[in-house]
Amino acid sequence: MNKLQRLLQNKILILTICAAGIGGTFQYGYNISIINAPASYIQTFMNTTWLERTGVPLESNVILLLWSFTVSAYPLGGLTGAVVAGPMAIMLGRKMSLLLNNVFVIIAATLSGFSRMAKSFEMIMLSRFFTGVNAGVSMNIQPMYLAESAPKKLRGAVALTSASFTALGLVLGQVVGLRELLGGEESWPFLLASNVVPALIQLTALPWFPESPRYLLIDRGDKESCISALQKLRGTSDLSAELEEMLAEQAAVKGQRAKHPWELFQNRALRWQLVSIVVLSSAMQLCGNDSMYFYAAYVFQEAGIPQDKIPYVVIGTGSCELITSITCNMIIDYAGRRPLLLGGYIFMAGWAIVFMVALSQQTQISWMPYLSMACIFAYILSFGIGPAGVTGVLPTEVFDQMSRPAAYMICGSLLWFNLFLVGTAFPFIVKSLAHFCYIPFLVVCVCTSLYVWFFLPETKGKSFLEISEEFRKRNFKAKTHAGFYKGPEEIKTTTL
Questions:
Q1: Rounded distance, CA 12 to CA 8, Å?
Q2: Hey, which of 24, 182, 308, 320 has its CA 20 to 30 A from 148?
Q3: Each residue of 393-425: pLDDT tens digit?
């Protein structure tokens, strides 16, 4: 009977993860990939629409500019979503924020689905902006919600499912975007509007599952609702140890309000936490993983793969990220956060060197295209095994309840700004450095590896208070000779 109860409660936790993920970070990966297949059709639609309006066709450089605006609207929306995610998480709660977030996708799907009927390419641009807002909110709130709802021993694995859902969305977006499905000339509006399906699934499923217990207790002060949520998620009457830990967290932040992002920069007690998430959030986009997809079609073509088969091979690159994120999900609470981050960036640095050598010899040595192709898969695998998932877990673990939403606002803003920066700058980097275009990404991977090795502490298996205490010692190293963590009494006067 006990085994049956434990299995049932594990199912509830798993279903909570799925309900949060399908309308959360899944949308980020899905909406990144579905825009690629109909790119040429949308550009043709822009030209045709303008011709019907004015009687004059658009010049090719103007079409390219309009397409750039369309693509750029997504990270701009993501940045907006990252900024509003913090206040939403504080005022509405984690679960309600995820549910309300689906409104942005429904608006986006309506705009893109009717854009051809309305003969308005501006509707597509606006649609991509709202899609970005949805992704920006979910990328911040979903890992926060799941990490706060998970038991300590499974916190890393549960929070890391956000990366798995991103990779799953990426792969399914590539599959749905095939010409045989919704990637054809007649069906592209349906492809862009298909993101409404995950939103409707989440709106149907997530209301049945509990709010974050930590949010209910620490932010709302509702102990009864917290215990009820814990019972649903854990299914055991013996919640005393976990509840005591939460009450200690509540005591540590008693009398404090939720912090604003700029207050984190002013607070010395949060210095190393802030530096860590700034470095790792920036490195996640500046490491060059997304740029590998830029080269994928060219490398596969050079390797002799027929043009019409390349989309199917590209699905393999997304599948690599999915496989490694699931693998990382299974081992993170055994291996720890530091080894996965360190190993991921070190391997990426190594593969970047091999990839640049292979590109420079692409036309000289017959088997070099195959080595380039192997490098693409290896680079994406290395990214998926650590940086892709662990980066999103850390803000939850290294910040306390009052600082966490603001920390995710900073992380999300950096992620989206750097995504826009790399997308804008990479074509110029390729033009300037040619085959050695991965040198900037190599430098980022090496520097991030050094930072993780020397400055980032391990958070595996530690309570939020223990992690806060470890960072407190680092932040006030010159002023304190504090011993090991002894309990909540020691930290009642902390500024965290």
A1: 6
A2: 320
A3: 888 888 888 888 889 899 889 988 888 888 777
